[in-house]
C-alpha cells in the first residue's frame, strides 16, 4: 500500500522514539511505501543519522511554512514538487495524520474530494499544550474530515465525546519489537539486579513543566542520598514550543546533588543500556488533563526491561503490571523505598514479558492496517 503520513515534526524528532516513526517503521517493514510530509525545521540536520532515512520505500518532504513549497529532504523525494503530485500522480491508498497541522487542511480537503481514506491519529490532548505551533483550534476540522479517528487513551476517547459524535478507536502507544529484544533479560539476570550495591533509579522522557513534577524529584534526591538518579530526556524546549518557561536553572540547582545526573536528550536506541542497568523506573508526572490523556511510551519500555515502576496516579496505566501509584511526594518516596528492593517473582516476570509481547508497535500497526483492509 501507499501511505501519506502528515506530522508537524520530522520522523526522528527528540531521538527517534515517538509514535509517528514507530508506526512508520512497521509500515515500511510490511512492504508499504510511505511519503512522510512534515512542517517544522527543528532537528532536520539529525535525520541522516537514522538508517531508515535512506530507505527506497520512504520519501521525506517538508512543507515550508512561509512559501508553502514542498522541499525534498533526500533524493528519492525529488519526484514531488506539489501536493497534487502526491495526491494524483502517486495517489496514496490512505492518509494517516498525527498532529492537527493547520497548513495541511488544504491537502486533506483535496484528498477528501478525491475519495482518499483519512485516519486521524490523536497523539495527545492538544488543547492542554501551552504552545501549539501547528495551529490552534484546528483539531475539530481534522476530526470532521477523517474517515476514521484513533486516540491513545480511554480518557481521551471519553473527552472527545464532549465535542463530537464520532467514535474513536483506542490504540495506545507500545514498544518496538527490536527494542524489546535488546532489552530482554532472563529471569536469572533480573534476579541478579537486586544484588547490586548501588541502586539506580531511572527516568526517561521529556522534562517539560506541564508534564513533570519537579517537587517529587527534589524530595526523592534529598530523601535517598544512597540511590543514584539518572534522568534521560530533553529539558530545554525546541524553538517551536518554547513558551519562555525555563527549568534549566532548576536542573542546575538539582545537579549540585552528587546523586542525580541529567543527561539530556539521548538517541532512542541508546536507552537500552541505561534501562538494563537500572533497579527502578519512575513516572513523576503532574496529574492534569495533558497527563491523564497520555499513553506513556516510557512505561512500555520500563516494563520491557523488567523494571518495577512507581508513578503518579495516571488513569491509562492503572492496569499495567508491576506499577505502584502515589498521590503525594511522601507516598511516592514510600513506594520507591518499597519497590527498589522488591525481588521480582517468576510470576511477575512472566506477566511483564507477556505484557511486552502483547504491546508492540508491530501489533499496533496491524490494528491500523486492518481498518483499511476492513473498509475495502
TrEMBL record:
<keyword id="KW-0808">Transferase</keyword>
<dbReference type="Pfam" id="PF13439">
    <property type="entry name" value="Glyco_transf_4"/>
</dbReference>
<dbReference type="GO" id="GO:0016757">
    <property type="term" value="F:glycosyltransferase activity"/>
</dbReference>
<dbReference type="InterPro" id="IPR028098">
    <property type="entry name" value="Glyco_trans_4-like_N"/>
</dbReference>
<dbReference type="Pfam" id="PF13692">
    <property type="entry name" value="Glyco_trans_1_4"/>
</dbReference>
<protein>
    <submittedName>
        <fullName>Glycosyltransferase</fullName>
    </submittedName>
</protein>
<keyword id="KW-0328">Glycosyltransferase</keyword>
<feature type="domain" description="Glycosyltransferase subfamily 4-like N-terminal">
    <location>
        <begin position="28"/>
        <end position="175"/>
    </location>
</feature>
